[in-house]
Structures are given as C-alpha cells and as structure tokens.
Design brief:
single chain, 197 residues, Ribosomal Protein S5, domain 2, four-stranded mixed β-sheet, globular
C-alpha cells in the first residue's frame, strides 16, 4: 500500500492569508482563487499538464499590488510540493519539457534534488498581463524552486505574445513536474548516489 503524496499548508501574515492543497497523484484538477486572475490561469496549467490536483485559496493586500500574494503562493506551493514528496523515494526525480503555444515556445527542466536553484530566462514586452506584473513571473518561479527544494531551469525561447509566452512556460513546468514526481517502477529507494536527497 502506497502512502498518499499530498500536502495541505496554511500561511497567515499581515499581508496575506492563504491555504494550499496538493495531490501529486491527482487527475489535473485545479481550483485556484488568488485574486490575480492571470496567475490562476497559469497555475491551472501547471495542475492540468502536471496531473497534479491543486487547490489555492488566497487573500492578500491587492490594494497595494499583487507582489505579496504572488510571492506567498509560490512559498506555500513550494512547501506543499516538498512536503508531498516526503523523502523522495522511488521518484524519477528529473523531468523536462518543450511546450509550444501558437507562436511561442518555452522550455522547463526540473531536478527534485533537494538543492534549491533557479535559472529563469523569460523576458516580456509588456509590464503586465492582466493584473499580473510580468516581473513577478520569474520571481514566482525562483521562489517556488527555493521552497520546493528543487533545481529549476525555465526559458522562453521565443514568441511575440506575452500571454502565450507565459502560458507556454507554465505548461512546460507542469509537464516537467509530471515526469519528475512520477514513481519509477524500477527504482528502489532514493534516486541518488548519495543515498539521500
């Protein structure tokens, strides 16, 4: 009998109040309410293409701007991913994906190594897409990688539409995570020569 790979984490600060539920072995169900609609859209793609069940309920000081809300969701989502992975036994550990979205193409590679690191190459033409500042997109990904204790390389290779560029990037993240969190039927124990992640 396998242990459920799930997490439920709450975070309360003077700036935000949020709760995240994550199931690594889900069906791609997303129920996301951050108050930042384009972020909801992007995270839904991570869930759908990663086959992760993800529920996010967040309230933040959006009257100031979206920074604290977006950042805290990345923190808690990363913590939930780390918690759901447990000791990371039996997982494939690494995953990568190229994803097209019309004229845009993006790439993501993850290593659930326990070592937080992020290299993000994602330039955007506009200052915002909807209510989400485009500068928050790489910041979200860097923060997620730190708190998930994973290495993440993510890059928008090309594209002229910022919505498409961002969407391709988050779809690629979902596809890469799907590979990396998947249980490897040939793997016994920790996928590392160190014996620990």
């Amino acid at each position: 009998m396998t242990t459920a790979r799930t997490a439920h984490i709450q975070r309360q600060t003077r700036e935000t109040s949020l709760e995240i539920w994550l199931n690594l072995d889900g069906a791609g169900e997303a129920d996301i309410h951050s108050g930042v609609p384009f972020l909801d859209h992007l995270l839904s793609h991570v869930a759908v293409h990663g086959l992760l069940d993800l529920r996010v309920q967040a309230q933040g000081d959006l009257e100031i701007d979206e920074h604290h809300t977006v950042e805290d969701i990345a923190i808690v989502m990363g913590q939930a991913l780390d918690q759901a992975l447990g000791r990371r036994e039996g997982i494939r550990r690494m995953g990568e994906a190229h994803v097209p979205m019309d004229e845009a193409l993006a790439f993501a590679a993850v290593d659930l190594s326990g070592r937080p690191y992020a290299v993000i190459e994602a330039a955007f033409a506009r200052p915002a897409v909807g209510a989400l500042s485009t500068e928050m997109i790489p910041h979200f990904l860097e923060t997620l990688a730190t708190h998930a204790r994973m290495t993440l390389h993510a890059r928008v290779l090309y594209g002229s539409n910022d919505h498409h560029r961002a969407e391709a990037l988050f779809k690629a993240l979902g596809r890469a995570l799907r590979q990396a969190v998947e249980m490897d039927p040939r793997r016994v124990g920790i996928p590392s020569t160190k014996g620990v992640l």
